[in-house]
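TICKET: design request
STATUS: open
ATTACHED STRUCTURE:
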């Protein structure tokens, strides 16, 4: 109760006016309205950090150049010109926040709650990390041939959004790893403030990745410019939803089942082959699509050289994907497992809908995917277990091993009554 009592006294000052606001106050309101569960001390502790950051940003909004209407375009152009003629560091007077913890602990919800409480006039952006990096690579391609395209891209990003809220910070791509240090050094030097969520502590980012020694300076920069906070909760809030099997069918050779349900979703519309434009002129072929719904086999969407850019492009046109034949994952289809994890992340980020047939439950799909630590603690083989099958199926991969818990949790939530009702509300209101 003592921690709850702090909510009532929260007050902030903006433009000389004292107001009662911030993530703590909004959290209390949602609990009172029954929108959130009460009593998670870990979330309360994290909210106190978010409230601290909120208060500092409100107090130092002018110094941080947060309000896009506070200075004229002429002054901004003058500052931009002088910053390039006389290079100098102008790091923000406020440190950002890096939140990490297990799946379903409420990281994304807490960051969104914080972001939504900030003044609308601020230069702020909330974006999934995958999408952010796709945007960075697209900008780099656009400025190809410039002496230092990364500096130009960092300048563009910080001019548009001085406060960056990046969800699901996870580095698996060597191309991302090699540019992150220079990119964020430049962003921080431009005054950018970072708020990020991740499943991984900073020191564990890009663990065992290619050329990781070139990535390590980024970790030091991140810890220098952000307060690091772990959210430790024993509760996976996504698994508290009332999961049903209405959109997730278990078994083999269920193509007729998924086609029947797909046709029910599109109604009287006639599904036809379509194509979707993604980044840099690429096009993604959709075998069948109609009425905002697309039908793929697992091989067509996850066993081909596709990535986050293709999936984000897909969900710009479709709000539902029917996926037939999700297999049990192991060493033999590790690459496809990575793509499936990315696909689920993009579906969840877009609050889209997944209709699928799979060879097992979400947990069973990933039973053969383990981290190095898990593998070291596994029981030795017995005579009743096949050494050949173990060697073939078991996939020891740290990144995938950590990501699988998030994917299992999201698959569970995405198939819940609450999620599907929310999806219907979002896409009904958009039409």
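STATUS: resolved
RESOLUTION: sequence designed for all positions
ATTACHED SEQUENCE:
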């Amino acid at each position: 109760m003592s921690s709850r009592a702090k909510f009532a006294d929260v007050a902030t000052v903006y433009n000389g006016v004292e107001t009662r606001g911030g993530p703590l106050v909004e959290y209390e309101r949602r609990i009172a309205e029954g929108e959130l569960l009460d009593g998670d001390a870990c979330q309360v502790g994290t909210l106190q950090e978010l409230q601290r950051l909120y208060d500092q940003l409100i107090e130092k909004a002018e110094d941080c150049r947060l309000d896009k209407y506070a200075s004229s375009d002429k002054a901004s152009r003058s500052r931009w010109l002088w910053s390039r003629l006389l290079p100098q560091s102008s790091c923000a007077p406020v440190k950002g926040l890096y939140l990490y913890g297990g799946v379903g602990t409420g990281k994304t919800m807490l960051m969104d709650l914080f972001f939504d409480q900030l003044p609308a006039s601020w230069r702020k952006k909330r974006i999934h990390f995958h999408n952010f990096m796709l945007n960075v690579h697209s900008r780099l391609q656009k400025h190809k041939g410039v002496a230092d395209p990364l500096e130009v891209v960092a300048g563009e990003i910080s001019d548009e959004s001085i406060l960056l809220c990046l969800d699901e910070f996870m580095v698996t791509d060597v191309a991302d790893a090699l540019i992150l240090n220079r990119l964020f050094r430049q962003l921080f030097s431009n005054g950018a403030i970072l708020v990020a969520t991740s499943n991984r502590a900073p020191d564990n980012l890009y663990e065992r990745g290619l050329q990781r020694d070139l990535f390590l300076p980024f970790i030091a920069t991140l810890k220098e410019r952000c307060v690091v906070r772990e959210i430790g909760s024993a509760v996976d809030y996504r698994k508290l939803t009332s999961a049903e099997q209405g959109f997730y069918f278990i078994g083999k050779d269920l193509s007729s089942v998924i086609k029947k349900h797909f046709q029910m979703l599109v109604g009287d519309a006639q599904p036809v082959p379509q194509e979707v434009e993604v980044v840099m002129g690429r096009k993604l072929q959709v075998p069948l699509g109609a009425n905002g719904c697309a039908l793929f086999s697992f091989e067509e969407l996850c066993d081909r050289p596709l990535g986050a850019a293709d999936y984000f492009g897909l969900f710009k046109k479709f709000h539902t994907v029917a996926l037939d034949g999700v297999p049990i994952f192991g060493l033999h289809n590790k690459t496809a497992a990575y793509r499936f994890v990315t696909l689920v992340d993009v579906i969840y980020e877009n609050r889209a809908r997944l209709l699928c047939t799979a060879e097992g439950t979400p947990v069973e799909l990933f039973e053969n995917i383990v981290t190095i630590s898990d593998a070291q603690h596994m029981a030795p083989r017995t005579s009743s277990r096949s050494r050949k099958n173990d060697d073939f199926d078991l996939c020891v991969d740290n990144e995938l091993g950590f990501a699988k818990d998030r994917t299992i949790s999201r698959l569970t939530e995405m198939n819940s009554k609450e999620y599907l009702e929310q999806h219907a509300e979002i896409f009904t209101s958009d039409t």
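CLOSING REMARK: Residues 41-59 form the longest helix (19 residues). Residues 255 and 324 are 6 Å apart (CA to CA).
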